[in-house]
Write a structure and sequence with these properties.
Elements: H1 2-43, E1 48-55, E2 59-64, E3 69-73, E4 82-83, E5 91-98, E6 104-111, H2 112-115, E7 118-120, E8 125-129, E9 133-136, E10 148-151, E11 154-157, E12 160-167, E13 171-176, E14 179-185
């Protein structure tokens, strides 16, 4: 009887030790996974990119880069939703939300074709080019922008992040914590 009790006690302790060790490893793995997941979620771009296939006053139909076709509703009461217009064949970047009725509502529409241009102010003269490059035309600029991308509906120039307040045929207004910057389009001859 004593041998059976000792054997059962030994097996129980062995089971607990063996059971605890993988659990501790699992917890550590999960902690690492959750850290990586939260870091990648923070770094994940929520913007959908594609080509406008149809545009109307309150609707944008866009074929995304992955081939999926999106139909976005646009709230025209919110004048800051659409930047650069909606033209068929133009490259677009869209952030959106899904409402209670399962409608896909655009929260920010940026016409990349309109954005890709030469822009100038008193102290900057730069060209936003296809493929994510920026060409500076300002002589003696100490820290010119050299790259751009749209990330979560914001324009990132090098490491500077801006909200696009206005984008149209002749104006670009960018805003960050330091202020609002106004640029006018330079027409190439």
């Amino acid at each position: 009887m004593k041998k059976t009790t000792i054997l059962l006690f030994f097996l129980a302790v062995l089971g607990i030790v063996a059971g605890c060790k993988p659990s501790a490893t699992k917890a550590n793995d999960n902690d690492a996974d959750s850290t990586q997941t939260s870091e990648s979620a923070a770094q994940q771009d929520s913007t959908v990119y594609g080509v406008c296939t149809e545009g109307a006053m309150h609707t944008l139909v866009m074929k995304a880069e992955d081939g999926k076709v999106y139909t976005f509703e646009i709230d025209m009461d919110d004048s800051i939703t659409v930047m650069g217009g909606i033209l068929e064949g133009d490259q677009m970047a869209v952030t959106y939300r899904v409402d209670d009725m399962q409608d896909t509502i655009a929260t920010k529409v940026i016409n990349l074709t309109t954005l890709e241009a030469n822009w100038s102010s008193l102290d900057k003269n730069f060209e936003i080019q296809k493929g994510g490059t920026v060409q500076s035309h300002q002589q003696g600029e100490t820290q010119p922008w050299t790259s751009w991308r749209i990330f979560n509906g914001h324009l990132v120039l090098n490491k500077d992040t801006f909200d696009i307040d206005r984008l149209d045929d002749d104006s670009l207004f960018l805003e960050n914590r330091d202020g609002i910057y106004a640029y006018s389009r330079v027409i190439k001859k």
